[in-house]
Every structure is written in C-alpha cells, then in structure tokens.
Amino acid sequence: MKQGLLIVVSGASGTGKGTVCNALMESLPELAYSISATTRSPRKGEQDGVNYYFLAREEFEKMIEEGGFLEWAEVYGNYYGTPLKKIQERLAEGQDILLEIDTQGALKVMEKCPEGVFIFLLPPSLEELERRIRGRGTETEESIARRLGAAKEEIGVGRKYNYVVVNDRVEKAVEQIQAILVAEHCRVEQNTKIFEVLEK
Amino acid sequence: MKQGLLIVVSGASGTGKGTVCNALMESLPELAYSISATTRSPRKGEQDGVNYYFLAREEFEKMIEEGGFLEWAEVYGNYYGTPLKKIQERLAEGQDILLEIDTQGALKVMEKCPEGVFIFLLPPSLEELERRIRGRGTETEESIARRLGAAKEEIGVGRKYNYVVVNDRVEKAVEQIQAILVAEHCRVEQNTKIFEVLEK
Question: Cβ contact (<8 Å) for B199 and A120?
C-alpha cells in the first residue's frame, strides 16, 4: 500500500488559503481534509468527527502531554490542534490529507513531519494583499497596518516551504496545487515498491 | 529572469522515451529540445543546428578536452554529446530544455548538473517491456534476452532519479511529466525573486 501524502497549505493572513483549499477539495474528491480537535463548543450544525473533534479541556491537555498533536495552539482561551494519530492512520491507508494551517502551525508540522508537502500561498502583490485585508471592511486603519506588517513578516517564512503558489486567480492556484500533488506522487521515494516488483 | 529547467527524460531501453518526448514537445511548444552534437554525417534532410550540431572529429575532441560537454559517448565510431554552453545559455534565458537520453548519459548529467529534473520512464511491467522489445521484430531470441537483461539492470538506476513515470499510456505519461514541470516551477528555489520583491 502506497503511503498517502500530507499536503500542508499555508500562507500569510489574507492570501486566500480557505478559498483555495475549498476549491481544491471540490476538484479532488479523493483528497481528505485534516479534521482539527478543539475545546470550543460546537456551533449550530457542527458535527463531532466531521467539522472538528470536540474535546473537553482535560482530554485535550492529556493529549498534549502524550505528544498526541502534530501541532496545537490556544486561541482566545480555546485549544485547537491537529491529532497526530488520526492523520498517521489515514496516511498509512494511502489517503492524501490536506491540512490548511497558519504559518506558525506549519512550522511546527515541518518539525514533526518533514516528509509532508509544504505549499506556501503568496498574494499576487503587497498592494493586492492590502486590498484584500481592507476589503473585509471590518477593521480600523491601525489594525490594517498591523495586519499588513505581520503579513510581510509571515511571507518570509515561505522560504522554508517546498513550493510557492501565487494566488492571483483561484483556478490557477488550484491547478498548480493539483500538479504538485501529481508530481509528488511520481517522486522516486513514493515509488520504491515499483522497483522492487520490477527487479524481482 | 527566472532560470529555465533542464528536464532529463530517460529510462531503460524499450520504455518508449522517444514517443513520450515527442508527444510532450507537441503538447508544450514552449519547451525546447536539447540539440546534440555529433561527428556522424548528416542524413538527407538533417540540418546543422536543428537536428544536430554536426562537428568534425577534431572539433569534437577539442570540445571534450575543454569540458564542453554535459555528457558524450562514442557509438559505432561516431561521437555524440550534449553541448554544455548552449544549454547553459538557453537555461539562463529562462528556456526550459528537454534532454532525452539513455541511462548512462543521464548519470553523467546528474554529476554535472544536479539541479536538473531527472525523470525516469518505467515500462508498466517486465512482460510489457519484453513484448515491446519483441514487437520490433528485428531481433534474435538471444539478442532479445540480452536486451531484456540489460533493461532490468538499467531499471535499478531509476532510484537515483527525482521522479518515475510509468509509461502504460503515452497521454498519461505526458500529463504526469507536464505536472512535474508545473510543480518544479513552483519550487521555492525557483522563486526566490518573488520573496525579494514582496519583502522590499
């Protein structure tokens, strides 16, 4: 059985990770989203094991202690994390898994899972990034300037990834990520079994 | 200016390198074939600088001495080689170059140009490889057995490449190589300029 690929899509705030990943999932039904665990309460319609694994605070902290997360973070008093064992099981079954995650989380995943495929989404330009951040229309000038500064810093982290994809058009970004998946499945390290069979 | 990619497509005898490379060139007009140099005489219709660079024996040997070939070999008394400088010039212009070459040649290219993208074509199975070798209908049983044995040995070399593509259908093999090219252009090492611009 061929091992699945862990595809990590990440990027600075405002680069459109979510939109690209949703379009990617629609175009590749065989790809599975990584399901996060969280201690926050389910919102209306959210199902355990579908949207999130909903855990009690004590369960989550026990899993942290046991090294059960690929990465985790506490945000506004709630824990969020990527359960390691579930991902390992599905990868072993040959399932490709998509993990959409912020840059801090991605750096942690790189440490624990360097064989993952790390894709960094870039905005077409800083002007466009600013337009997108402003476009939400919900933030003050100060907050926009702070977010833009943070985004510039985050972009530098992209150098540590395997691939960069410029998100100037969602369809184009999705096509490039699809090509990356095809190519990664062709990598020699993914195909050692073929040689074993042919050399018998 | 973004550097072009040197795409090396290689594989054991009988895996269909030529057919796949011709189909690839047709589907990607922006890709350029590497033009070999040779000391053999031009055949009818062959043009210097198009089919081959036709060189005199002394010229070729002088270029060998000067390290002017990415790889070269002598076959039935004629020299064949890949001129290094021409390739470097075109890569620097951002031109992707396709080099279709046997496994021995590819190993030499790996040494001189490790940043190349090395794609190994595999036959779908040894049975199919045998069928293809037999299919030419021009060889004795002894010659077929020898070629098949050599092909099995050659297949092992594939582990040194970056990618393997199984040539069970030409269109599928071409699609996979196209995806590899897209992915390689997305590699972080190919896109350092983007970061420089965005971080200014």
Answer: no
